[in-house]
Known about the structure:
The protein contains one helix and 36 strands. It has one helix at residues 153-156; strands at 15-17, 29-33, 36-40, 49-55, 61-68, 86-93, 96-103, 107-113, 124-128, 132-139, 145-151, 161-167, 179-183, 195-199, 202-209, 216-222, 230-235, 246-252, 258-265, 271-281, 284-287, 302-304, 333-334, 343-346, 350-354, 372-376, 382-389, 397-404, 408-416, 419-428, 435-443, 450-459, 464-471, 477-484, 495-502, 511-521. The strands form eight sheets. Strands 23-26-35-28-29-30-31 form a seven-stranded antiparallel beta sheet, with no helix packed on it. The radius of gyration is 24 Å and the shape is globular. The two termini are 28 Å apart.
Amino acid sequence: MQKELLWQSDMENGHFKNPILFADYSDPDVVRVEDTFYMTASSFNYTPGLPVLVSKDLVNWELKNYAIKNIDYPRYDVPAHAKGVWAPAIRYHDNKFWIFYGMPDEGIFYVTAEDALGDWSEPYLLLEGKGYIDPCPFWDEDDRAYVIHGYAKSRIGFKSILGIFEMSPDCKKVLDDDRFIFDGTVTQPTIEGPKVYKRDGWYYIFAPAGGVKPGWQTVLRSKNIEGPYEEKIVLAQKDTVINGPHQGALVDTLAGEEWFIHFQDRGLYGRIEHLQPVVWKDAWPIIGVDPDEDGCGKPCLIHPVPKGMLNVQPTYLEASDDFMSDSLGLQWQWLGNHKDNFCQMVPETGLKLNSLNTGDPTTRSLWHSSNVLTQKLVCPAFRAQVTLSVAYLQNNEQAGFVMFGGQYAYVAVRKEHGKRSLVYVESFGEDETKEENTKVIVPWGHSADEITIQMQLNNDGEKVTMKMAYCLSDGEFVEIGDEYEPIDHQWVGSKIGIFSVALDQSCDHGYAVFKNFQVEGLPTPVKH
């Protein structure tokens, strides 16, 4: 299937435009190993988790791997929305890649690999406990090793503070008590997401503060890793449209330049990635551009590409999938922990999704179903469609296409009492009591076993809306349901997804077969 560049940051004229990734890779961190850059990001309750993206120029990125298959706690077998894997840090040390990450209800973990694109180790629980988040490891020149991290108020009762503990250099055990090294309550409220570096004898902690949307980038520095730390705001929104700008990574290039990758919260699109130049003055970094020369930069929209990075082939994230491979495309993630019986790749046919009820047996809500297969939005506006065969759906089962966020809407073929119908459904209610309202029911009324469902996301620069339609064998699309306004959920943006689920606890499950999943970008006046 021909793949389309749905978002292109590389302007192919020696410049790039921000964002470099119009996709929800929250809390990004980046490391360079030789001439290759590796990025990871939060994955929360979605699996596989801890994505690994690769670039040769910091502008053009491809998704290449995941570091964890599932989350090793049974509670994640049902989607634990907004929980799970938070804010990782990726490092290269002792000839291995390391990803440290916090799970706010469980503790601080890490995984390792000699090859970032190969198999990663099983997660190792370094420090157990609630409220520890955003860990960043640091191996000092004296062979001592530390973890600097933040705290989640929702679990531990306070925030705006950074902590530190020493660990053995092999990361097998914690050597002392966790303790505070910086209190930002007054001057840097909600400071979090620390990333630790050492330069010219200074210890630097890059950390966002002020909150996700209204906040800024702070840098702390000290001659002693334990502090005390001086503080300086080095990047802020100022007069730009780039709110935040929030948590990210400092990285250097072979040419000796330094750059900062950070995210911007874009609501329903999630947390999208920007690239900013970094210069140093008086042993402080300035991120972005600083036309008023006050020592605090602002984000740039267009900038020359990193030095020595011309003529890199433009790449981007894949969204379309013909399901003809022997494995799922990397763009797909399940809503919770997944099992082998969720799906099978059927050669020359497509993706077989088994109609399972993996969630709460007392509800029909997709909100509680781990076997919903999702992918991120990767451009501001698009038209997506998928064809599915429903010949083998059993009673009390449905299969369809969903826009999934804090609330969601879907079109599905539902089979009840031996009869099929086409339904348009919207969710409502709070997370713990999420319900669904079937707003449109169209009797099947024909013998066809195949249907194509289409979703169109429109962005006029002021408002983002979605409309769904379906097509039977005559090739004409018929709109169904209301104009819908997608929304984000806590920490994550909206996603598109496909599913085949059971509406009861019967063991006699059917299935649906999906093929020709296509995503086409649409013009939009949205501000970058």
